[in-house]
Design brief:
309 residues; alpha+beta; Rossmann fold; Dna Ligase, domain 1; D-amino Acid Aminotransferase, Chain A, domain 1; 3 domains; 5-stranded mixed beta sheet; 5-stranded antiparallel beta sheet; 9 helices; 14 strands
Length: 309
């Protein structure tokens, strides 16, 4: 392979060799698409090493993909852990076109990274989710507000870690929030994603799903209405109930997810889905479960590998 076709230089993306890999070793090779190494990616690399799985980091910032001259990465499957959603989505689509399986698939990543598409998938599949609407002008959003009622939540179409969320307690609040979004510029700030507000019992749930199974769950506790761990929420043990399993599976299947973090909220009508994250962090879960989440992720990813490709 010529230098211009390399996925990345050895300096930037080292090949980490699993224990016991030697001449004729046939274990699947795991590529991990990353923007940077967070705690979760380090745990995944360590788990792969313990399993004897050879891994290659594929850093999104180093990619130069010649679409007219395919040069797929020398791996059997790519695990998406990229936080740069646009880069990651395009890279996964190219890898798939070049015959490399990806986990999650690019179509799933595209749906999870766009809250409008995600909510539409939930509605189409009959997933019990928070009532959501989308509008494109301030006036039409105010009409939506009258139907949803106040308070309501305004979220960016893309984004994570509880950033840029706002609670509108009245039409005046909503108008002010949306006018500010418009002033920020950019097409995404002109798409108004509005969601019903649910009074939480001081917590919500983060559920981790891998390969059709719910493997862990935690409560995320906070006095604030935003209960993301990234915003200071504290994770505690949550027993996995039949309802948690059923709702989580519905949500994951609606978007075609193989690996996901599903956020649920307790309501008088039962559990409802807030959203689903395809490349979810799990550091908050680690202290609430004995399940080796990183190891389960690696085992699932290599089960999807195109061995002998």
């Amino acid at each position: 392979m010529s230098d211009r076709h390399r996925i990345a230089s050895s300096r930037d993306t080292p090949l980490l060799t699993g224990e016991g890999r030697g001449e004729g070793f046939s274990s699947p090779r795991l590529g991990i698409l990353v923007s940077h190494l967070r705690e979760e990616e380090k745990l995944i690399l360590a788990a792969a090493g313990e399993l004897g799985v050879a891994t290659q980091l594929i850093q999104d910032r180093t990619l130069a993909l010649d679409l007219s001259d395919p040069a797929p990465p020398e791996v059997d499957v790519v695990l998406d852990r990229c936080v740069a959603h646009t880069r990651g989505g395009y890279a996964l689509r190219v890898f798939e076109a070049w015959g490399v399986p990806t986990v999650n698939p690019s179509a799933t990543v595209a749906t999870c990274d766009d809250k409008v598409l995600m909510s539409l998938a939930f509605a189409t599949a009959g997933v019990p989710a928070l009532r959501t609407a989308v509008a494109f002008t301030v006036e039409s959003a105010l009409e939506v507000g009258e139907r949803l009622g106040y308070p309501l939540i305004v979220k960016p179409v893309t984004g994570s870690w509880g950033r840029l969320l706002a609670r509108a307690n009245s039409p005046a609040d909503l108008r002010a929030i949306l006018e500010q979004k418009k002033a920020l510029g950019g097409p995404q700030h002109g798409v108004f994603y509005l969601q019903e507000y649910v009074v939480k019992p001081g917590r919500d749930l983060r559920v981790f799903y891998v390969g059709g199974e719910v493997i862990a769950a935690s409560y995320r506790n906070s006095a604030h209405w935003i209960t993301n761990v990234a915003r200071g929420a504290v994770s505690t043990t949550c027993p996995i109930t039949d309802e948690i399993v059923a709702v989580t599976r519905l949500a994951a299947r609606a978007v075609g997810a193989e690996i996901a973090g599903v956020d649920l909220v307790e309501t008088p009508d039962g559990l409802k889905v807030i959203e689903i994250n395809g490349g979810a962090e799990f550091k908050g879960l680690r202290g609430t479960t004995d399940v080796p989440i990183a190891r389960v992720i690696v085992e699932h990813a290599i089960s999807r590998a195109a061995v002998g490709r």
